[in-house]
Design goal:
1 helix; 2 domains; about 140 residues; 4-stranded antiparallel sheet; 9 strands; about 5% helix
Length: about 140
């Protein structure tokens, strides 16, 4: 793949919806197996060019989170940002859906929504449309 084709491929919508489940696009290095989300052109681990596109599982586990109390004017505060671990050995930061305080170790799934962004519209196309929501399975290990 030429660098222009690779760059164009990376500009695609950062997720796919399959059977009602939202799956994030990521890149996996065919040489060392490192996974990156968002995908990139070159592997940070081994320098290989041309990572293969994969879709992450639609569910993950909260590794940690933070509550944002001060932000730029386009975001309502407070809101929660969660680091979510996926089975593919990658950790992604996403805003939480709703106002409930996240719990470390809690099972979550990726959903579409407007998140903390102050937008009076349907979910945006692009990365700002992605959020995490609590799943019915399992509670976490406690609050931080």
């Amino acid at each position: 793949m030429t660098s222009m084709e690779a760059a164009t491929a990376m500009m695609k919508r950062p997720y796919e919806v399959e059977g009602g489940l939202v799956r994030l696009r990521a890149g996996r290095c065919p040489e060392c197996g490192a996974v990156y989300c968002p995908a990139r052109l070159v592997c940070d681990g081994c320098g290989h060019r041309g990572l293969e596109e994969i879709l992450l599982a639609p569910r993950g586990t909260i590794y940690t989170f933070t509550t944002v109390h001060q932000s730029t004017p386009e975001f309502r505060t407070p809101y929660h940002l969660c680091y979510v671990d996926f089975d593919e050995q990658v950790r992604v930061m996403l805003p939480a859906a709703g106002d409930e305080r996240p719990r470390i170790g809690e099972a979550v799934e990726i959903v579409l929504g407007t998140g903390p962004r102050l937008v009076d519209a349907e979910p945006e196309e692009g990365p700002h449309a992605l959020m995490v929501a609590w799943t019915a399975t399992g509670k976490g290990e406690g609050d931080v």
